[in-house]
Structure formats: C-alpha cells, structure tokens
Amino acid sequence: MKIERVEVFPVRLPLKGVLTLPRGASRTLDEGKRVALVKVTDEDGNVGWGESGPSRRWSAETLESCVSSLRQYLAPAVVGHDIFDIAGLHERMNRELAVGLDPGQPIAKCAIDVAVHDLIGRRLGIPVQSWLGAKRADSVQLARLVSAASPEEAARMTEEACEEGFRGFKVKVGHHKALDADIVRAVVGAARGGYVWADANQGYTLDEALAMSRVFESLGLTLFEQPVAMSDVYGMRKLLAATPLKIALDEAAIGLPFVVELIRREAVEGLAIKVSKVGGLHYARQMCDLALNAGLTLIGSGLMDAPIGFAASVHLFAAYGMALPVDLNGPQFIAEDYLAQPFPVRSQVAYVPQRPGLGIDIDEDKVRRFALPLNF
Fold first, then answer.
1. Strand pairing of 195-199 and 168-172?
2. Residue 238: left if φ>0, alpha if ψ -120 to 50, beta else—which one?
3. Are residues 259 and 113 in the same domain?
4. At residue 22, does pLDDT exceed 60?
5. Where in 15-141 does DSSP place strands (E)?
6. Distance between CA atoms of residues 308 and 145, nearest Å
7. 56 with 121: CB under 8 angstroms?
8. Domain that holds residue 249
9. How many CB atoms sit inside 10 A of residue 92's CB?
C-alpha cells in the first residue's frame, strides 16, 4: 500500500506562557507555538497525521525551514512509497536532505515518520505502541518544567504543581547562574519529596558544571542533564569522573552515530530521548534499544510538543517503560490546540490511547482556524 498524497499545514497555536532557556526565551507569546502539521493519505484513502514543532533557540530548524523542506523535498520524495517500509521511507528522505551527525533536518522528517506510523496503526486497527512491539507500561508520569527567575518564583511554581498532582520537577538552570543553587534548593524544598533534576541546556562551562554538581549532590539530586556544550566530550568525561550524579545528554543525543561515539568514549550515562530531535519514531526506538543495551538510563523529553508530538512520545516512552517522570510540557504552555477531544491525562499521568494509530482525532476546522499562511 503506497502513499498517495502528503499535505502540509502550518499553524500557530496560542500560548499561556513561555519557556526560558540559557539562550533566552524559546519564543514569544505573540509568536505562539508554530507547528507544521502533515497529513499523509494512502491509496485507499486512509490518513495519518504527523507534525514538525521546531524550537529555533534550541535547534537549527525553524517553522519556515520545516515547511519548505517538507513541501519542496520530503513530500515529493515519499509519494508512491510503501507505507510499511519505514526504513525505506527514511532512505528516501535522507537522499533528499543529507544525514550528518544527526539525521539531517530531523524535525522536518519527523512529521512524515510519525504520520506514517499513525497511518499504519489506523490501517491495522492497533495503537502505535503495539506496532513498536513493546508494552512495558501503559502510561507515563509527567514532570512539571520549572523555569523561574528567582527562588521565590520557583517555590511558588513547584507548590502549585504539587497541588495539580505533579511528582516530578525538571529545573532549568544556566540562565540565572548566580541564583541557580538557590532556585534548585527552593524547588527541592517545595517538591514534597518528588523527583527533582536540573537541566542546563549546555549553559555551563566545565568549571561551572563541576561546581554546580557538588551543590546539586548536597541537595539530594541524582540527575544532571546536559551541563556542558554537546561537543565538549572532554567535559562530559571529566564530569562523569568527578561526580556520582548521573550525567544525561539531551542536545548531544542528536543521532545514532554521535551517541555510539560517546558510548565508545565512556562519556555518557543517560540519554534524553526526543522523538522530533532524532527524526521520528523509527530512529527514536533504535536509540532507546541502543541505550538499554549499553546500560544507559532513558529519560523522556520533548520540545514543548503540540498534541501529535505529545501522543507519539507517550506511545514510545510507555513502550520502553520509562520510570522517571518525562518532560512533555506542551500542555503546560499551549493554551489551545487542534484536537477534537483532549488527550487522556489523569493526575498528571498520560495514558497510551488504546484506539488505532496515535489514538487522537484531529479537528480540521481547528486546523483551518489556527492556519498560518506561508507561501513558499
């Protein structure tokens, strides 16, 4: 069964808050959450949905680059391809947009990958998780992302999150360096025994990361995410040797070749898996298998994902039984979306939908309402 048509729909979803990274705010409220939705239709009229949700201050891709890549290169490359040959699907996309250390514009490619997974599940009448071939769990615990400018704000956000049922807290550090220790201390104090870890998004030098690791140890943290630049393999190794904290990589977990090299150099203990960052579910499951076989800790993460990316991640993270709370924070920031019915989340636990495909329905009237014209 072959792909007959690929359609691309840029949309802007309204936000109720913005996320701050060491490089600055990931986007503005006016900018909103800008996503390229992809609708893949097969010869029998069956449909699957995917999306590209870039974060321009985190990745090298933008909405404009994703839309132009999808419309001009990736969609024409995959029309006529067998939907069940996902490896061949990626080979076609990789011939059009070359692979480097990462899969080559992975966020753009992710949209087609996820749409085809959704389409396969719908055709077969099974959830995507079943197609992935693993059912270690049927849900994942969500973490609350704490990005605060002061310890007082961090404590307030954490207390509110506890009332909402959160039991995991990921604290952004590296952009208010003089306050980082006090901010993390405030979160730990307000978390009611919940799991807390720090994420620097490459924001520290090696010396700064070494100093902060000692502070985090004293506060009872066990995990430190991407403390130094993704290219600083020497720094990663020095940190691993200097601290009992689990040093997990996020930006550095960009693709299988680089992760394999980091494992060879003994420079990694944990991987933050982002479905979009690695080019979709096809590569994400390979990275999960690699991590498990290498004895690494798996951490679930996202890019403030809209519902399609959120759903794909829940299917994958539950399939691999990720025990730590996962940083899928789209619902924390996105005010409205394009779903016909809300995704099943209860007490900050996201459940794998048991309906075919991703198990979500797209309201195309909402897609048209949120449409963002990009004429290229």
1. parallel
2. alpha
3. no
4. no
5. 20-21, 24-25, 33-42, 47-52, 139-141
6. 20
7. no
8. 131-351
9. 17
CATH at residue 34: 3.30.390.10
**Two tokens at 31?**
């900018």
Residue 252 in any domain: the answer is yes
269 and 305 both lie in a single domain = yes
Tokens representing residue 119 in the block: 């389409």
- Dihedrals φ, ψ of 16, to 5°? -110, 0
**193 in a structural domain:** yes
**83 and 17 within one domain:** yes
pLDDT digits (tens, 9 = 90+) for 310-343: 999 999 999 999 999 999 999 999 999 999 999 9
pLDDT score at 356:
98
Q: For residue 353, which phi and psi values (nearest 5 degrees)?
A: -60, 140
On whether residue 85 sits in a domain, the answer given is yes
Any idea how long the chain is? 376
Q: Which amino acid is at 299?
A: I
Domain total in the chain: 2
Instruction: Give the separation between CA 165 and CA 332, rounded to whole angstroms.
Output: 13
Assign 3-class secondary structure to 188-249.
Answer: HHHCCCCEEEEECCCCCCHHHHHHHHHHHHHCCCCEEECCCCCCCHHHHHHHHHHCCCEEEE
The model's pTM is 0.95
**For residue 230, what is the domain's CATH number?**
3.20.20.120
Same domain, 284 and 192: yes
- What letter does residue 30 receive in the DSSP assignment? T
